[in-house]
TrEMBL record:
It comes from the Eukaryota. It comes from Acanthoscelides obtectus (Bean weevil). This is C2H2-type domain-containing protein.
Amino acid sequence: MPYDYFFPTVKLRLSSRTCKTCGLYHASAKSLNRHIENVHKKVNTHTDRKVRPVRVVARRANELMCIIQNLDHHDVEWLDENDVDIPKSEH
């Protein structure tokens, strides 16, 4: 059983980070998407949409640490630059 199952703040994200094909849990959406592409050889339709963050907190290489609004709380995650929708004025 994944460690994250015991944290109430993570419960809302468990289903979105679990592979629908094999049931394997991943700690991040990025890891889940990589798993689906490499193991199941198909593109996850969830990644076709770009994420519009509340705020970009940090940058490294080709990744951005973004604050994302999820229902009634905020979530912080590293995302590929190509997966983030940032208005041109914020670049």
